[in-house]
Each structure stands twice: as structure tokens, then as C-alpha cells.
Amino acid sequence: MWTKDEAVAATGGTCDMDWSARGVSIDTRTIRPGDLFVALTAERDGHDFVAQALEKGAAAALVSRIPEGVAEDAPLLVVKDVQIALEALGRASRARTGAKVVAVTGSVGKTSTKEMLRDVLKGQGRCHAAEASYNNHWGVPLTLARMPRSTDYAVIEIGMNHPGEIAPLAKLARPHVVIVTTVAPAHLAAFDSLEGIAREKASIAEGLEPRGTAILNGDVATSQILVDASEAVGAKVKTFGEHASCHHRVTDIRICDHVTVAEGRAWRQPLLYKVGAPGRHFAVNAMAVLAAAHALGLDRATALGDLGRWQPPAGRGLREVIGLDNVDTAQTLELIDDAYNANPTSMEAALEVLAAGSVKHGLGRVARGRRIAYLGDMGELGDAEAELHAAIAELPFMARLDTVHCVGPLMRNLYEALPPERRGRWTETSAEMAEGLRRDLDAGDVVLVKGSNYMRLGRLVDAIRKLGQAAVAIED
């Protein structure tokens, strides 16, 4: 992937030892022999782990100084600033490939849409995308720096927490197609308004290659901001959504237990398609994926087939069957793992999926299947955070739920707004909530776990899995 001479030319650094790297890593826990280790400084200084990386077989290390405990003749590529050098590697990697690049941003659905794109694109060529949600100032250049030269298609996820983050990353990625999944009240603590969030999301179009295509959510109130910004940079604009004015329009959505079936119009033709996971948001974002496939000139039938087999990754709506009895295989519950992130829009979408879940009666000690939610705090919502949490109680899907358990100080607002018959337990932390899981749940239940990542509701997911047998992912 990188020779010493190529890396030196890209970064302007110095290195006396010859080496070649098969990959790029920033984490000694997952580093593989032959990787170039990048000593980033974030929560911890990566220079403290250079010796360990070399011991594990790293081909070389990208550093801004010679770390303690590292031999003088170690293969070190020394630069002024490691972050800037990583960006330079990403820029050089992007320049040397002929890959068609799709960049994705949005308040909700970035990662699941990236994964849909991965499945669709890899069916028609060599596709490169980050294995995790690497969408920030180091994640985007790292994804680019890891891109093989022979890549046909690449998917780059771009996120933000503050104004001014998206455009520089988009210019680094130089996409041929950009997608804005939606604009929603997320990160309001850093923005004055929803319009401010829309302008930031719209800035992804600033990185478009000439004659590039912008695929934009046409349902949100701020759609015109997205359209105007994209047209201002000369992009070909295509909208998607459920509104009649959208170029790629979803006209009917049927949420089933394990799939979503949708009808719509695209390419001025009627369209019937399936997504291998339940969720209105999945069906709508799938239309954006199909629009991207069209913009890239892909085979439509192959794209539709691959889309129907797609399933969300762990923490993003993955559904699993949890066996509760080693002998009686009918004693199961169903888990919806959506614990990675949350804001009001994604929370509403997840609750709609739970409300549509099919429970099973006549099993377990309760003998009545229930729809149960474990909901954690939603972060970065600004001054309206208390009201936004309490407002979940008024969502129409809540009427079909049996019990809602709440985790965190902000979710106390929802707990107090819930009617007594739907109110479960409230705890400050996920660890406290996990202690009562065995009493809460029974065979036949459908269970949703949803919250912002910092609430660590993944602990609840793990605890639910440990209630019985090894989890088995549902396949359609």
C-alpha cells in the first residue's frame, strides 16, 4: 500500500530506513504485521505506543518526534505534524486511484447508508469503505490512506460536531457523488438553529468533482438550503424521499418483522424493492443509495438484489434472536441493537420499528409477549434537551409499547412524562439498569436498546445476550 519513498513524498517527512507497508493503523490493539503505525495524539499520545507497534510487526511508524524506548535505527517517518501528515497520505492515496467516490453525511443514517452503499457497490466492483464509523478529522484521512490503488468504488462517511468540519473533509475525499441523508436536531449545542446544521451538511457539496451529483433529502424543512448550496457549486441535484416533488420518491412502505418492502418511482419508472431490515428510515435512505447507483452507471437489477440482502451493523438496528433455554428452543426473545447513537429523529425511527415488531405469546413465565424499550440519554441537544426527551412520550408509536425503561439524567424527563402503565425503571447508568434485566425480560418479548454512545448502552446489549444462548443474527 505504501513504500517509504511514496510516504516521504506525500508527507514531506524524513526517514533513513527503507520499508514498505501493507496497511495503515492508529491502534496497537488491532495493528497487523506490515502496517504503518500513525502516532496520532488524541485522548492519549500515540508516540507512547510506537515501541509496542514495532514489536507487533509494524513496518514503520509515522511520528513527529523520536519516542522514548525506540531504537535509533527504527523505521520512523518523522514529520512536523502527524495529523497533517495523515491528511497528506489520504490526499495522495485519493489522487493515485481511479475510484469513483461517494461521500455520505447527515444528522441520522450516515453509517447505515454507508453500509448499504458498500453492499451495493461491492457487487459491481472492488469497493473500499471504513469498517467502522470513521467520519471525523482523523477518520476520513485514515480511510483514504487505507484505500487500495485498485479500488473501483469508495464510500466515505463524513460527520461533524461543530461548524466548519465537513467542507475540508469533503475536499480531501473529492467525491463524484454526495448524499445528505437528513437534517435533524442533532449537535444543537454547537449550532444556533436547524438551518445552521443544514448549511453545514450542505457544505459537503464543496468537495464534489466537476459535474458531480448531489443526492439530497427532499422531505426536510431545510431541503432548499441543501439544494441551493449544491447548485451554487455546479452540482447535478437529485432529491429523494417521500414527498411528491422528490426525483426519487418512495410512495409506499411496509415494515415487516425482518424486512421492509417499499414501492416508489425512480428514473421515471415504478420501482418495487426490499431492504433486509425493518425501518421506514432504511427504506427512504435505500432510495438515496439507488440514486447513487444510477449516478455511477451501475446495473439496476444487481443493485436491487444486493440491497435486499443488506442488514444493519451491530449497534445500528441489528436484530438478533436470543435463546433463553438450552433445551426448549422456542424460549427466545428478539433484540434490536441500536445502542450506538441517538437523537430525536433516529429515536422516533427506532421506536416505529419496535412498535411494528411481532411478539410471541404463550411462552415463559409471563406468557404474553411484550414490546420493551431501554432508552438512554440523547446528547448535544442544547437548551431544549429536557423538552426533547420528554416529547418522546407523545410519539404515536409509544401507544403500542408495553414498557419503557429509561437510563440517564436527561431520560428522567421522559420517565416522568410516561403514563404509569408504560413506565418501567429509571436508573442513572447502564450498569445499574443491567442489574435488573433478568426480572424485566421474558420469552416472546421484542426488546429495543437505543441511546447515545456515551451512555454505554452497549453494556445492556451484552447483558441481554448473556441471558441465554449465543445470539443468532436473523436472516431473511
Automatic annotation (TrEMBL):
Record keywords: ATP-binding, Cell cycle, Cell division, Cell shape, Cell wall biogenesis/degradation, Cytoplasm, Ligase, Nucleotide-binding, Peptidoglycan synthesis
GO process annotations (BP): cell division; cell wall organization; peptidoglycan biosynthetic process; regulation of cell shape
Domain of life of the source: Bacteria
Enzymatic reactions: D-alanyl-D-alanine + UDP-N-acetyl-alpha-D-muramoyl-L-alanyl-gamma-D-glutamyl-meso-2,6-diaminopimelate + ATP = UDP-N-acetyl-alpha-D-muramoyl-L-alanyl-gamma-D-glutamyl-meso-2,6-diaminopimeloyl-D-alanyl-D-alanine + ADP + phosphate + H(+)
Enzyme class name: ligase
Family matches, as InterPro entries: Mur-like_cat_sf (IPR036565), Mur_ligase_C (IPR004101), Mur_ligase_C_dom_sf (IPR036615), Mur_ligase_cen (IPR013221), Mur_ligase_N (IPR000713), MurCDEF_CellWall_CoF430Synth (IPR051046), MurE/MurF_N (IPR035911), UDP-N-AcMur_synth (IPR005863)
Pathway: Cell wall biogenesis; peptidoglycan biosynthesis
Family annotation (SUPFAM superfamilies): MurD-like peptide ligases, catalytic domain, MurD-like peptide ligases, peptide-binding domain, MurE/MurF N-terminal domain
Subcellular location: Cytoplasm
Mur ligase N-terminal catalytic domain span: 22-91
Its EC number(s): 6.3.2.10
Domain Mur ligase central residue range list: 104-293
Presence of keyword Protein biosynthesis: no
UniProt binding sites for ATP: 106-112
Pfam families: Mur_ligase (PF01225), Mur_ligase_C (PF02875), Mur_ligase_M (PF08245)
Keyword Repressor in annotation: no
One GO CC annotation: cytoplasm
Family: Belongs to the MurCDEF family. MurF subfamily.
UniProt xrefs under HAMAP family: MurF
Protein name as annotated: UDP-N-acetylmuramoyl-tripeptide--D-alanyl-D-alanine ligase
Gene: murF
